[in-house]
Amino acid sequence: MPLTWREATAADLPLLAEWNHQLIRDEGHRNAMTVPELIERMQGWLRAEYQAIVFCAAGEPVAYALYRHDDESLYLRQFFVRRDRRRLGLGRAAITALRHEIWPQETRLTLDVLCGNTAGIAFWHAVGYRDYCLTLEIPPA
């Protein structure tokens, strides 16, 4: 299935925030922000240092990537494939497009994955990312 992509616009904010809300739940994150709060946060990120790409299959949005590029690396903050479109190769195709069509080839690529998100960890390993750092914490009592 061919995958196309485009840069996100302000019109995409409600969709991106809803998908971000689903992503938070899917990965088991503690973030309790509401969709309206996520819209506001996403809007701020896109005005400042982040860019977002929306991926489409048959003209229908199916995934997005939110990232920032600095002098040393490119940090992928969020990546989401619609729940009903997973396990069809769309995530792998989107990462391939990012790596070969959108992102500079000579840039170090980084991302964070929650330790409990075993499906996410497996996906990122499958598309070429390797373990580099583990953050440990003692949560408040």
Structure description:
Helix content is 35%, strand content 25%. It has 4 helices and 5 strands. The mean pLDDT is 94. A hairpin with a 3-residue loop joins strand 3 and strand 4. Helix 1 crosses helix 2. By secondary structure, it is α+β, with helices and mostly antiparallel strands. The chain has helices at residues 13-27, 35-47, 90-102, 118-126; strands at residues 3-7, 51-57, 60-69, 73-81, 108-111. A 5-stranded mixed sheet has the order 1-2-3-4-5, with helices on both faces. The longest helix has 15 residues, at 13-27. The protein has one domain (3-126): Gcn5-related N-acetyltransferase (GNAT) (Aminopeptidase, 3-Layer(aba) Sandwich).
Keywords:
141 residues; alpha+beta; Aminopeptidase; 4 helices; transferase; GCN5-related N-acetyltransferase; acyltransferase; acyltransferase activity, transferring groups other than amino-acyl groups
Chain-averaged pLDDT: 94
Content of β-strand: 15-25%
Tell me the number of strands: 5
Round the Cα radius of gyration to an integer and report it: 15 Å
CATH superfamily: Gcn5-related N-acetyltransferase (GNAT)
Gross CATH architecture: 3-Layer(aba) Sandwich
How are strands sequenced across the largest beta sheet? 1-2-3-4-5
How does the overall form come out from the CA principal axes?
A: globular
Number of helices: 4
N- and C-termini, Cα separation? 49 Å
Q: Which series of helices and strands comes N to C?
A: EHHEEEHEH
| Weakly predicted, low-confidence segments | none
